[in-house]
Amino acid sequence: MSDQNAEEFWKIADSFINQANELYEKEGDGKVGYAMLYAAARFNAFIVATTAGGKQEIAEEKEQATAYFTEQYRKMFTENLEDYEQNFEKYV
Asked: Which residue ranges make up each domain of the chain?
């Protein structure tokens, strides 16, 4: 990822995180996290569907796409949880 793409990636991610933090302040529980998880799943399914070209291609790509997005989530979640573990006093 180029520096420009990385900068844009972090800007977009931060905008979602900021909105989630604002909603969390109002809701005060796990609804925001579940809603974000659902939204990410719905949006990524949209991406797979719109790039697949049709029902048959979606069916053919479903298993590979599911494995890819599951692994990406696991990697990102683990990295962030380890970051919180190492910086607990600073973040919480």
From this structure: 29-91
Q: How far apart are CA 16 and CA 36, in angstroms?
A: 9
The C-alpha atoms of residue 51 and residue 44 are separated, in whole angstroms, by: 11
**3-state helix vs strand vs coil in the chain, percent to 5:** 90, 0, 10
Kindly state the DSSP code that residue 87 receives in the 8-state scheme: T
pLDDT digits (tens, 9 = 90+) for 22-58: 999 998 778 999 999 999 999 999 999 999 989 999 9
Rounded Cα distance between 76 and 56, Å, is 30
List b or e across 41-68, with b for residues whose CB sees 16 or more CB atoms inside 10 angstroms.
eeebeeebbeebeeeeebeebeeebeee
CA distance 62 to 7: 30
pTM for the model stands at: 0.85
